[in-house]
Amino acid sequence: MQMKTLLLKKEEVSRLIRMKEVIGTVEEAYKAFNSDQVVQPDYIGIDLHPPRGDIDFKLGYYKGNEIISMKASSGGFPNNPTTYGVPSGMGTILLFDARTCALICVMDGSLITGLRTGACGAVSVKALARKNAKRITSIGTGNQARMQIRAINEIMKIEAIHAWDHTSESLSRYKADIEREFGIPVVMANSKKEAVEQADILITTTRGKGELVEAEWIKPGTHIVAIGTDAKGKQELDPEIFRNAKVVVDSITQCSEKGETQHPLSKNIMSKDGIHAEIGEVLLGEKPGRESDEEITIFDSTGMAIQDNTTATKIYRNAIENKIGTFFEFFE
Amino acid sequence: MQMKTLLLKKEEVSRLIRMKEVIGTVEEAYKAFNSDQVVQPDYIGIDLHPPRGDIDFKLGYYKGNEIISMKASSGGFPNNPTTYGVPSGMGTILLFDARTCALICVMDGSLITGLRTGACGAVSVKALARKNAKRITSIGTGNQARMQIRAINEIMKIEAIHAWDHTSESLSRYKADIEREFGIPVVMANSKKEAVEQADILITTTRGKGELVEAEWIKPGTHIVAIGTDAKGKQELDPEIFRNAKVVVDSITQCSEKGETQHPLSKNIMSKDGIHAEIGEVLLGEKPGRESDEEITIFDSTGMAIQDNTTATKIYRNAIENKIGTFFEFFE
Lengths: 332, 332
What we know:
The structure is a homodimer.
Chain A: E1 3-8, H1 10-16, H2 19-33, E2 38-39, E3 44-47, E4 54-62, E5 67-75, H3 80-84, E6 91-97, E7 102-108, H4 112-128, E8 135-139, H5 143-155, E9 160-164, H6 168-182, E10 186-188, H7 192-197, E11 201-204, E12 209-213, E13 223-226, E14 235-237, E15 246-249, H8 252-258, H9 262-266, E16 277-278, H10 279-283, E17 297-300, H11 305-322, E18 326-331
Parallel strand pairs in A: 1-7, 8-9, 8-11, 9-10, 11-13, 12-14, 13-17, 15-16, 15-17
Antiparallel strand pairs in A: 1-18, 2-4, 3-4, 4-5, 5-6, 6-7
Helix pairs in contact in A: 2-4, 2-11, 4-5
GO cellular component, one term (chains A, B): cytoplasm
Family (chains A, B): Belongs to the ornithine cyclodeaminase/mu-crystallin family.
Enzyme class (chains A, B): oxidoreductase
């Protein structure tokens, strides 16, 4: 008996997937999640003592593709580069054929979280932003802020980006990079308020260390993509924003505990019943998306294992099709 | 930045570890577990629809070796060999350097569960059996029954084995294999009672489908190694055996729920306080092992992630030392 496992390096993974495809795999994941096609156990992890970070293991089974994925991802090891010569966060994805549980692929997993998180904003923009939205405001200018633009740029014409960050160096680098890579003009805002007031689409991608955006700054018709809050205690938005907004989440269970939605719930600004939909329901046509140009819509994303599953599966299939990667026989 | 990950095939794994070493790694694991050196989150898994089985992911961090292990193991896919040409159960182990969370090794994991489970009986025999024990009784004659003998044969002289199984074909094969491999005479018992009455050491390795061993058959001084029960509802022993026995477990938490110990607890034959020790406490000298030749001792083993950790780490180190395996760079 023999089993061939495909090994894919980081550089191969990066060549094997385009952002346009990731937008498709994330849409597929959201729809699958709301079609009773997904098994996602609670993730398990180990927290190490500072200055070390943590490592998580996220498991997802998608009946539609008969693939079980397991992503190990670590982060928060600031001394890794200098002391050990490895990145501060790394990732590995295993894919199993769910018909047999044979290990069909081991791939570097350090790019996928960024890609599938980037794509989720674009998926929400298609479903929830105004059709005439042109201006994006970016609170946060790190790697994930760029990913959001990379993805949204695939699905709409961005006229201008108003950006803000705590540090002006990061803001300047973001402006230079975005203008060079996408040719979209970036306005460096003098204040968060100034930036937010310009938004048709507001994206928050900070570390979630507290309220950054006040409710009165948000103009009618804005679509908000809330990315940075993915753990209990993190926060980016004034919870009052939720009071009169249409709230869409990736997973009600996850967002109630770990997403931006935890705050309006715990402050009784809204109840769980006040969550309009999981985004898969909107994509499946089971619940409406945006219904007027005046609505404020919020998409709260915490990230789901099934997004890793569909995205890694696409990478695997592209690799097989293009004969990229190295086969290894763990047993013969 | 560069990371070299060692890949080890099943055949290499089998060459890289001897049972004598596994007895050492399992002892190390038990001691570590009772020395506040271990983090073992609850395992996660996915149950597929019959005729498919399940896949589990078990995570363990051992501070003593600074290794995090993750074992994926599947089982119960009867159609795999004929329909898909792969075994009915498979396994993969990832090892991470806990200082950085870099992936240092991916090895086939289909042999390790059998090896470390085999070794646990021998570890318990050293700690709990009579020093003059000579005769073993084996209820069950499958792969794990052989593993138990392979391990115990490393630490004592076995004079004879009395064996019993539901099917006489399995029993005959066991006799032939054990006599050829170890030169130990095997008596094929006509009944369970006949076999059990001969035991200095009684080992049960069946699928745990119900009570097989009655309390009155057990003679004073017997050491019982209870292997087969590792899930809620499984059972091999009359729970009355526990009433006057010295009960030692691998993990009180696990054995109370999933081990043979679940039954005397649920029948109020004993309370959790009646569990004498976790075996690590005995090995560390914190609690006594056997204290007389008349005691009946029971070792209830459910299996812990930390046993996979110490055993796989030994295999990894042996591979590095002997320059066996294939390095793969998941990123450069």
